[in-house]
Structure formats: structure tokens, C-alpha cells
Amino acid sequence: MIKVGDTLPDARLFEFVEVAGEGCAVGPNGFPVRERTAGKRVVVFGLPGAFTPTCSAKHVPGYVDAAQRLNDAGIDEIWCVSVNDAFVMNAWGRDL
Hints:
InterPro entries: PRX5-like (IPR037944), Redoxin (IPR013740), Thioredoxin-like_sf (IPR036249), Thioredoxin_domain (IPR013766). The protein has three helices and four strands. By secondary structure, it is an alpha+beta fold. The chain has a two-stranded antiparallel ribbon with strand order 1-2. The longest helix has 20 residues, at about 55-70.
């Protein structure tokens, strides 16, 4: 378990980007977690899967509702990670 103040693993995550940028094609683009979080306070929460009833109805809405309070507390970004690929996560994000 990662706790406040721990160093994040040197992992690579993928996100779907609908607009090409920085020479990358539109589609799932990988990024190094440590690089993207450097100098930031980031809340990272994981879910069993996109489009699952409990995650869609209970988990994500709680973070959406708390987003402003987290921002006011100094959190720069909120990340939702799951076992799904970047295409599914993007579709789920638009759906929510």
C-alpha cells in the first residue's frame, strides 16, 4: 500500500488522448508516473473495473463530489486507475 509521503513506484500508466500533441498520435499514450507527479500532490485511487455498477455509482462519484475540497486542501490532480485499457477508461470517463 502506498501511504502519504511514500515514493511512487517507477511505473508507466496509459491514458487516451483525443487530441494529438507533443508529436504523439491520438490514442493511448504512456507516461512515467514519477515524472508526471513530480512536484505535485496527487490523489490516486484504484478501481476493480470501468462500467461496473458499484464503481460507477459509488466510487467515482465520491471523488467527483470531493474534488473541490481536495483541491482546496492542496491536491493538484485526482487520478483513477483500473485494469481496463485506456480506450475503455476514456469512454467511461466521458459517460460519467
